[in-house]
Fold Multicomponent Na+:H+ antiporter subunit E.
Amino acid sequence: MNRNARRAASRVLMGVWLLGIWLLLWGRIDALTVAGGAVVVAGAYAASRLPAVPLVRRIRPLRVAAVIAEFAWDLLVSSVVIGWHALYRPRQVRSGIIDVDMRSRSELILLGVTTSISLRPGTILIDLDPDRTVLRIHAMPVRSRAEADSRRAGVATTEERLMRAFVTWEDAPPEEDDR
C-alpha cells in the first residue's frame, strides 16, 4: 500500500470514527442524522485540516497482551521505587536528563513510548525531536551513569515491545512475511 493510499484510508477511518461519535451524541441512527453527521465530518476536515492517523500494518494480539502486562509490571516497580525514595531520604534523590535515540519512525510507536514512560512514576518526557526521533526524558532516581544507561535501556525495551506488537508501515519493510 503506497503512502497516498494509506493517508486516504487513514482519513476515511477517522471520518467513520467521528461519524460514530456524532451518532452516539444524537443517540439514534436514521438517514437525516447520518447525512447531517457526514456534512459535519466533512466540514470539520475542511475547517481544521485534521491530521492523518497513522495506520498499523498488523497487530499481534499476544504481543499486545505482553505489552500491557509488562507495562503494568513496570508501573508497579517504578511506583515502589519512587515511594521508597520519597520516604527514605527524599532530599538525597538525584535525577537526570537523558537523551534516548529511538529506532522507530512511526508516530504511533513514538506516541506509545512517550505515553508509557510519562505514565510511570519517576519519568517524564521533556522534549521530542521529531526530525532525529530523540526523546529527552527526566528520570529519577539516577545517581550514576550506569543508572542512566539502565533508564535508557528501559525506554528502548518499551519501544521494542511496541514495535513487536504493532507492525507499522514506517518500520516494517514491504517484503516482510507474516510470521
Observations:
- The longest helix spans residues 61-87.
- The chain has a mean pLDDT of 84.
- Residues 3-53 form one domain.
